[in-house]
Amino acid sequence: MKDFINVMKAVSDPNRVKLLKILQTRILCVCEIQALLSIAQPTVSKHLKVLEDAGLVTFKKDGLWVNYQLDNGSRSPYAATILENLRHWLNDDEAIRTLLERTPNVSREEIRPRRGFPPARQDCAVCGRAATAWKAPVMVHDRSGQ
Fold first, then answer.
1. How do residues 97-117 score in pLDDT, each as one tens digit?
2. 54 and 11, same structural domain?
3. CA–CA distance from 51 to each of 17, 55, 63, 98 (Å)?
4. Max Cα distance, the chain (Å)
5. Is 41:31 a contact under the CB 8 Å cutoff?
6. What are the residue ranges in the chain where pLDDT is below 70?
């Protein structure tokens, strides 16, 4: 009964249901989910943990990235049933439809610079010198002043 309750609690939150729906389309990292749902990163992480504990999502690390995807449902028959049925549910909901239309276009490479982490090689916008290190959002020069 505990597994059943965990799965039902996991899908009782609208943002978690939206998260499951967008993960039906592709594998996503936290920053992409955050951008799509317009909620804070710690909130996204908490939602993902609840879904993971219920056997609905799983993750795989790829360097610095943590990629989330739907679980195959092998850990819980309740999770498997919800995931299968959710594919057919809520597709006519306008908010879900809008999210699903936006999902293919979200890109971690485009999100990351907007969050204060510029590309690896960039010149200082103030003086034009090459940056040696970045501490978002401030550029730091080497000690020689060059």
1. 999 999 999 998 888 654 444
2. yes
3. 10, 6, 23, 22
4. 65
5. yes
6. 112-146
